[in-house]
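Students often ask what a 'structure token' actually looks like in practice. Rather than answer in the abstract, let us consider Putative HNH nuclease YajD, a protein of 125 residues. Its sequence is given first.
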Amino acid sequence: MALKKTCACGKIIDYNQKYCKECEKKYEQERRESNKQYDRHVRYSKDNIKYSKFYHSAEWVKVRQVAIVRDHALCQDCLKENRITPYDTVHHIVPIKQDWDKRLDVDNLVCLCESCHQKRHKELK
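Now compare that with the structural description of the same chain:
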């Protein structure tokens, strides 16, 4: 018998799924809109061209992949609380705006789910 769990909407889903099909569509739409807003107002603003180029560089793609493999594509903050959650973001522990030299340091990277990523950013403010 396959393991089951409850989706955020209350539907029963397979354990290896994150959301039911309806919630997945809704989540992806919200994520795309959020990313579009973030890109428009933060990532690609005139002040952030340097960072934009970095996040599209071959070096970033490679070091990001190393962090994902190292962290087994799981949120490390959730794992510390005995929860298994797939990662959504590779996060710079020391932000690159604070220390540009650590941008490609794999020890400065951690895989996080969206919720934990938001918590980390709130702590920085």
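One point worth highlighting: The two ends are 46 Å apart (CA to CA). Ask yourself how you might have guessed this from the sequence alone, and why that guess would often be unreliable.
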